[in-house]
């Protein structure tokens, strides 16, 4: 390399290949093959940054260290596969070489150790760097060579640093998973100092484990201590600090590739511009310069150091285990334990007397100052001493590590405590109407009772100073129990006698990872997890749905569409469960024979908490429609969003409203901070539910008057309420669910929401940033994805087509009006906190209802809430204290978790299958064999094979002629007539003739090119829709369809997919059904996914018997058409009034020969007639209906293009004359 060359950078990646760690502790979303692919993608990105960049990859196992790349093995010996079409060949060779060498290396490792040593790997990397420097400067030698005759050609150098140039830089990236081997301490530090001398940066990427060892005797996991210790590396913290590299313990292993690309890919010169993610114990808290003892590999503050080899021990040892150097054991007299201590001797010489305090008068402290490790780089004199010196008035104090909780409700290994089971759900019912027998008078009674208890939000009784301490909220829970729970739970305690508060608790004494691990190991129901769904919230809904015998999934009859709303529900677990369960009802022993009749409407905050429709795979995503309100932000605390969402639901349900209302609530806030969310969730439910509907929402603590009042008011307009703590909800948290059943209203449909006044919309428009936002890690959803979500939400759609009359007179309407006033008052107080309103508004709204100050709500409701709070609080204390004990003892683990998982899934009727990456019908365990033969997964993506001949349709449909009408085989009653439309304006190269269409999933829910069509069953193409939203054809559907134009009531041209026949719908094989049955399934599908204002819809064409066409033609309406100069006959094709222009008839011969249909002249009924035997029967004979593969079709144009040709009017007139 000569001066002036471009910069060259060598990246040396050292990867941990410890087999036991990857098989035992790896994250479920970062399995070993995925890890290797992430590394390969990362090094490929490095190579693409510059043609001069180089890379080396070294694999490390507990037994050996080996170069994976560059490889000394000849390429022909590796039997590499040919590169894929269009792929850079060098990347293919590198990738295949590394994959095969990794496989050989890891399969040859027989060690059961879970520790790894990187010292030799770093040394190898440095040697490789020196070798590359030597190869790049061949004119330099490492030693003086007096014998050299050509001194101009070879320049002698005395130092290896002369080989290094400013144009060739190297850095090492260590990707460590298993624990550090303490034996490598000296060799590793020597290698680090060498790298520092050579100017080689050492970066460290630490992958944390997901669980810990069961016991110290387990040989596979015996090296694992606590999760906190095993997930951080002080050695590599120091290595990165010494060499100027980056140390990062990745917070989420599933995002490894994102962390590698964003943190470790930039060169050293750009790192000052990086904002590193919180590593949970790395850069954010400084470098841990403590050393690890060689005996137990624990971090030590004070230690014994061998004076020969500098080995470190946490306790005195007479012989160094590293270098075998013996040491003299100090002899300590039995009566003088201070003998030999220079400090104590010095104090005695200065006049100190043992047992007395320091100072001239002995007035000082009598105990030595305890050593303390400062947290988060705290300096001396930090103001936490008061919290540690004082003791709360109720005798609770912060528990030190390894100190057992001794509270009244603390956990212990008492054999009398009943073991957990799948039936341990806690349900607390209450009803104020249990003794009310007159159902007709119930709405009036509810209104009368409600009007007497409402408390205006601006009244003095409703206002008060904001609540800042939860330990004062003892109206609905005993003080002792509340303090004990807060002592375990929150980050502060308070002593009422001194008005002092503390910022520490027992959990703060333990590390974050230790608490996370303890929470997993101590919860007996933890292994239930998410199952086939996207998250645990879906499993909670499954738990509660099974608990109440399908209350949510069977709220409507199976043959009707179940309408539900899902609010604050991102990413959509509740909805995914309901759409799946609707197609797999409880106690069903037969496979599903129909597309699930369900339709969901959702609203949630845009951004990280948005719906993750790409993860909506267990249920049909096409049946769910996100909506973000007129403000386009999904904030349900805004009146305008509530009103527009109510209009949207009303338009889609015919003003009837939804059967059920779910709230998955993504805000994990304290009770006081989330009360506005509580209120708006209840408010939204009241506006959307139809009479008798049910509502479930997630709450946290309910200790404040505001929360209790809200539940009390809801009990006035529902027949029953229930507070639920399902076993799928972690027992150590405050989560619980409020279920309201049987909405009491005199209205026939939903109540609706009053339109927001302009003042409210203007006032609240600036509060979007102040609304409670959920915070999640990055790398979740890009800005473009969020924009697409808002586009498909219908946030801009005009939903004013509904004729809904907003309810203002019933108890529900009165309560809606009251809660809206409270919501607006909370908005004003939020602005007052920012200084934008008058200071008098700084008083918070604390109460919603009238009642006696001392007793609370009447009719026993206060006693009900108190008993629920105390039982749940004691249960929570039990598991919080259990979690503390498990955090101190990493070997403890609840042994019943796997058995309980099996029992719970069986009780909830959830299949134990692995969740697939695609939609439910295409999972390997579900896909029908025929579809599996068509859809082929490959490394290039999803590929489609040729259709079997029995699933193909003719490219040209036979045209019916006038001569055919005179044949004896022509029977009008034996033919179905399907009314066709067409593309009046084809500007996007869409197919004009009927084609076979297959759906691969996603549809409008994901905005993907999910639909493929084929004219001949051999060549598949994408349907290039001009609109951004695609038809909602569910995955696993194979249909015969026609692309047509539809026209909205405001005369806008749209596209639609008219379904003419189907072989599969959502993976359900309907080939053997009759044509009429197949079209009924199509009609049910189209009705289910027919959302208002979708730009591209799937529609079911009019289907009639041929003799019925005369009446159909008479009902056609002349309407103006965008693509015709004059009015044309139109028929309505969708629920929102979109129309189609008929352009032809498709005649369907659906009966097998020799059968035909005829009409009885005596009774007028249709019957089956056998042309050969002259047999007549009313009931359909076996095998008379043709299956999909044998159904025949004829085509008739709507208007004849030439004189003398057959058209629809002539055919219909002919049929009418023959009937007469």
From TrEMBL:
InterPro entries: G_patch_dom, mRNA_Cap_2O-Ribose_MeTrfase, RNA_MeTrfase_FtsJ_dom, RrmJ-type_MeTrfase, SAM-dependent_MTases_sf, TFIIH_Tfb4/GTF2H3, vWFA_dom_sf. One of its GO terms (molecular function) is methyltransferase cap1 activity. Pfam families: FtsJ, G-patch, Tfb4. Residues 532-744 form the RrmJ-type SAM-dependent 2'-O-MTase domain. The keyword S-adenosyl-L-methionine applies. S-adenosyl-L-methionine-dependent methyltransferase that mediates RNA cap1 2'-O-ribose methylation to the 5'-cap structure of RNAs. Methylates the ribose of the first nucleotide of a m(7)GpppG-capped mRNA to produce m(7)GpppNmp (cap1). This is Cap-specific mRNA (nucleoside-2'-O-)-methyltransferase 1.
């Amino acid at each position: 390399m000569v001066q002036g060359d471009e910069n060259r950078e060598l990246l040396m990646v050292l990867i941990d290949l410890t087999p036991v760690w990857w098989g035992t502790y790896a994250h479920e979303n970062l399995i070993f093959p995925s890890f290797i692919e992430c590394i390969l993608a990362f090094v490929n990105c490095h190579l693409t940054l510059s043609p001069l960049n180089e890379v080396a990859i070294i694999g490390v196992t507990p037994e050996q260290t080996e170069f994976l790349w560059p490889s000394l093995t000849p390429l022909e010996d590796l039997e590499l596969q040919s590169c894929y079409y269009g792929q850079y060949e060098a990347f293919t060779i590198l990738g295949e070489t590394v994959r095969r060498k990794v496989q050989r290396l890891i399969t040859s490792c027989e060690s059961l150790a879970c520790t790894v040593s990187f010292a030799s790997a770093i040394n190898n990397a440095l040697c490789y760097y020196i070798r590359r420097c030597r190869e790049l400067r061949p004119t330099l030698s490492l030693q003086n060579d007096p014998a050299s005759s050509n001194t101009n050609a070879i320049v002698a150098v005395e130092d290896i640093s002369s080989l290094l140039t400013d144009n060739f830089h190297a850095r090492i990236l260590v990707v460590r998973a298993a624990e550090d081997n303490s034996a490598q301490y000296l060799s590793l530090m020597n290698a680090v100092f060498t790298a520092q001398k050579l100017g080689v940066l050492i970066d460290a990427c630490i992958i944390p484990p997901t669980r810990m060892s069961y016991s110290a005797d387990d040989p596979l996991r015996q090296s694992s201590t606590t999760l906190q210790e095993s997930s951080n590396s002080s050695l590599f913290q120091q290595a990165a600090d010494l060499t100027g590299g980056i140390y990062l313990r990745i917070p989420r292993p599933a995002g490894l590739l994102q962390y590698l690309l964003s943190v470790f890919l930039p060169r050293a010169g750009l790192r000052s511009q990086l904002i590193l993610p919180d590593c949970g114990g790395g850069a954010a808290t400084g470098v841990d310069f403590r050393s690890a003892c060689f005996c137990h590999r624990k971090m030590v503050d004070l230690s014994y150091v061998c004076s020969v080899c500098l080995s470190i021990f946490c306790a005195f040892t007479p012989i160094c285990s590293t270098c075998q150097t013996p040491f003299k054991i100090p002899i300590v007299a039995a009566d003088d334990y201070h003998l030999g201590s220079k400090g104590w001797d010095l104090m005695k010489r200065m006049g100190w007397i043992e047992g007395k305090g320091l100072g001239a008068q002995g007035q000082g402290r009598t105990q030595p100052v305890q050593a303390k490790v400062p947290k988060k780089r705290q300096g001396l004199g930090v103001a936490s001493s008061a919290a540690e010196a004082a003791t709360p008035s109720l005798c609770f104090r912060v528990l030190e590590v390894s100190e057992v909780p001794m509270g009244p409700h603390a956990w212990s290994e008492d054999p009398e405590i009943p073991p957990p089971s799948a039936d341990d759900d806690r349900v607390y019912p209450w009803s104020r109407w249990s003794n009310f027998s007159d159902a007709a008078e119930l709405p009036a009674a509810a209104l009368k009772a409600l009007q007497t208890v409402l408390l205006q939000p601006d009244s003095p009784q409703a206002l008060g100073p904001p609540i800042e301490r939860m330990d004062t909220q003892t109206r609905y829970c005993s003080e002792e129990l509340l303090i004990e729970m807060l002592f375990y739970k929150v980050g502060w305690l308070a002593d009422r006698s001194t008005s002092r508060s503390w910022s520490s608790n027992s959990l703060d004494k333990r590390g974050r990872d230790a608490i996370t691990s303890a929470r997993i190991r101590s919860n007996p129901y933890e292994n239930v997890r998410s199952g086939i769904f996207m998250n645990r919230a879906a499993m909670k809904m499954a738990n509660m749905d099974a608990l109440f015998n399908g209350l949510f999934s069977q709220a409507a009859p199976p043959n009707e569409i179940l309408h539900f709303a899902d609010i604050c529900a991102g990413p959509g677990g509740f909805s995914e469960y309901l759409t799946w369960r609707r197609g797999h009802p409880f106690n069903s022993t037969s496979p599903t024979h129909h597309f699930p009749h369900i339709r969901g409407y959702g609203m949630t905050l845009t951004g990280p908490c948005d719906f993750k429709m790409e993860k909506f795979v267990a249920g049909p995503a096409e049946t769910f429609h996100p909506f973000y309100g007129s403000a386009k932000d999904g904030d349900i605390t805004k009146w305008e969003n509530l009103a527009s969402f109510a209009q949207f639901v009303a338009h889609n349900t015919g003003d009837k409203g939804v059967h059920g209302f779910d709230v998955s609530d993504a805000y994990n806030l304290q009770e006081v901070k989330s009360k506005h969310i509580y209120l708006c969730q209840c408010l939204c439910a009241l506006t959307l539910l139809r009479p008798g509907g049910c509502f479930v929402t997630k709450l946290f603590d309910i200790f404040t008057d505001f929360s209790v009042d809200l539940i009390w008011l809801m009990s006035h307009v529902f027949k029953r309420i229930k507070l639920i703590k399902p076993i799928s909800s972690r027992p150590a948290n405050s989560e619980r669910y409020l279920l309201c059943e049987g909405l009491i209203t005199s209205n026939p449909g939903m109540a609706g929401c009053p339109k927001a006044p302009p003042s409210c919309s203007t006032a609240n428009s600036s509060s979007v940033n102040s609304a409670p936002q959920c915070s999640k890690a990055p790398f979740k959803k890009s800005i473009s994805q969020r924009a697409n979500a808002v586009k498909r939400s219908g946030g801009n759609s005009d939903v004013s087509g509904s004729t809904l009359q907003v309810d203002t007179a019933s108890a529900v309407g009165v309560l809606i009006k009251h809660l809206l006033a409270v919501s607006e008052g909370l908005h004003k107080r939020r602005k007052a906190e920012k200084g934008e309103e008058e200071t008098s508004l700084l008083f918070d709204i604390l109460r919603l209802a009238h009642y006696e100050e001392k007793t609370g709500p009447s009719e026993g409701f206060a006693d009900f809430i108190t008993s629920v709070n105390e039982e749940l609080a004691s249960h929570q204390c039990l598991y919080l204290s259990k979690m503390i004990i498990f955090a101190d003892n990493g070997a403890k683990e609840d042994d019943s978790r796997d058995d309980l998982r099996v029992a719970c899934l069986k009780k909830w009727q959830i299949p134990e299958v692995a969740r697939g990456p695609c939609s439910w019908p295409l999972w390997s365990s579900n896909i029908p064999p025929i579809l599996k033969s068509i859809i082929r997964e490959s490394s290039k993506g999803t590929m489609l094979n040729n259709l079997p001949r029995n699933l193909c349709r003719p490219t040209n449909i036979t045209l019916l002629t006038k001569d055919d009408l005179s044949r004896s085989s022509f029977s009008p009653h034996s033919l179905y007539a399907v009314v066709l439309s067409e593309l009046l304006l084809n500007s996007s190269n869409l197919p004009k003739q009927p084609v076979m269409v297959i759906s691969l999933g996603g549809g409008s829910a994901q905005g993907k090119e999910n639909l493929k069509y084929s004219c001949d069953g051999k060549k598949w193409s994408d349907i290039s829709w001009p609109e951004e939203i695609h038809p909602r054809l569910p995955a696993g559907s194979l249909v015969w369809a026609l692309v047509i134009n539809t026209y909205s009531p405001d005369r806008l041209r749209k596209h639609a997919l008219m379904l003419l026949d189907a072989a599969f719908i959502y993976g359900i094989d309907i080939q053997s059904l009759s044509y009429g049955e197949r079209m009924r399934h199509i009609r049910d599908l189209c009705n289910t996914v027919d959302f208002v204002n979708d730009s591209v819809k799937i529609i079911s064409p009019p289907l009639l018997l041929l003799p019925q066409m005369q009446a159909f033609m008479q009902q056609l309406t002349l309407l103006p058409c965008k693509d015709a100069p004059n009015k044309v006959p139109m028929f309505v094709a969708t629920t929102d009034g979109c129309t189609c222009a008929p352009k032809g008839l498709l005649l369907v011969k659906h009966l097998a020969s020799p059968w035909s249909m005829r009409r009885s002249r005596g009774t007028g009924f249709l019957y089956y007639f056998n042309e050969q035997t002259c047999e007549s029967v009313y009931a359909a004979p076996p095998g008379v209906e043709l299956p999909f593969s044998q159904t025949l079709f004829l085509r008739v144009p709507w208007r004849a293009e030439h004189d003398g040709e057959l058209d629809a009017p002539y055919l219909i007139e002919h049929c009418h004359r023959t009937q007469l």
